[in-house]
Amino acid sequence: MVMMKHIPLFSLPLLIVLFSHSTTTLAQSPAAAPTAPATPSTAAAPAPVPSAPPTDIIRILKKAGGFTTLIRLLQATQVSNQINSQLLTTSGGLTLFAPNDNAFSSLKPGFLNSLNDQQKNELIQFHLLPTYVSVSNFDTLSNPVRTQAGENPDRLALNITSSGGNQVNMTTGVVNVTLGGTVYTDHQLAVYQVDKVLLPRDFFEAKPPVPAPAPEKAKGSKKKSADSTATTADDAESDAISVKQRHVMWVAVLALFIAAFT
């Protein structure tokens, strides 16, 4: 009888443990790849809003076209710089009546060249009102309207009549002017075209001569004249005394001569 060799078998509890470990390992999913940390998002800064350029009367007139002579006068008198400065420093605004080139060409030949620097400045200032006036508000102004040329109502008077903005007429006592279209307005500066140059009476009326004060030199001349007159009188008196003395001397000589022969 052949004897069979006894082969030891795994114990049942050990098999159960091994099977359970293998099943758990196979059931596990692959490890997820690590995610990169989120980068905090930065909001884009808003683009800076460009500020509006300051008002430039020369740029406005050049853009409109047809105001070459007025531009030249504004620059020569430096009133253009004055306008730009006033718009930056005052709140009331300005109103400019702008004669175009045709208006200046209708003037008497050589008129502008006959004006001195002060008169040219006064002429441009006469076209400026020291406040902003819209077309619909000309009928609210009181005549004579004050301009930047001065407040003399006799020589620098500007009278404006309006029918609610439909038509605006102006008179200076020398010319009658009609307001044309609006060249520019921004509720601080108003520029209106006019068909004629506003000529103040101050340019055409003779001004009373200014009385010259009596200088000290003149007083001295009067004193010198009086002294000269007194000297002349003294000389005349001396001459009269000399004649009298000579007369007395001749009388005495004659008396002696007569006495000698008697």
Automatic annotation (TrEMBL):
Residues 30-46 have a biased composition (Low complexity). Residues 54-198 form the FAS1 domain. GO terms for biological process: plant-type secondary cell wall biogenesis. Its main location: membrane. GO terms for cellular component: plasma membrane; side of membrane. The keyword Cell membrane applies. Residues 30-50, 208-238 are annotated as: Disordered. It is found in: Cell membrane. It is a lipid-anchor; GPI-anchor. Transmembrane segments: none annotated. The keyword Glycoprotein applies. Residues 1-27 form the signal peptide. Keywords: Cell membrane, Glycoprotein, GPI-anchor, Lipoprotein, Membrane, Proteoglycan, Signal. Belongs to the fasciclin-like AGP family. May be a cell surface adhesion protein. This is FAS1 domain-containing protein. It comes from Glycine max.
